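Hi, here's the filled form for the chain we discussed.

Project: internal
Contact: R.S.
Residues: 179
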Amino acid sequence: MSRIGRLPVPIPDKVEISINGAEVKVKGPKGELVREISEHSALAVEDGVLLVTPRSQSGEARALHGLTRSLVANMVTGVSKGYVRVLEINGVGYKVEILGTYMRFDLGFSHPIFFELPVGVAAEVDRRGTVTLTGIDKEILGAAAAKIRSFRPPEPYKGKGIKYAEEVIVRKVGKSGAR
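And the returned structure, exactly as it came back:
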């Protein structure tokens, strides 16, 4: 049995969970999320916690046990607290601005890059080139942040590019000039 899957998911106040067959609906102060879960997992709400149990001991059911628990726990956290992802843009002349539901990136290419924010993701930009993405769906938020980072990944010599705030870029030493 999965160690992660065995952990109960605590349900905070103001969060409601409704289970309708394979569909789980989590509603909280920040919004509502709906997800289809695998038929190999069973969900039960008892005493303010959500329990996930595998329906059988097949390999697939055991593999999806911890995943199902993590997905539902992420939904509960998203609708109660929300998620934040911070990206830093480093480089001379690199800039970003928000144009309605689009973001415009000037990253040293011959053209600007336009990125449409997914539904449910909000962005803020400050003067130092820090982009803060917020949302309630961890999966969509992470995919949007990864897509933005892919426009100009950080390079190891000068550290230019787009990186996550908590990411550490291991710097390399450049050429050692002529003797």
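Let me know if anything looks off before we file it.
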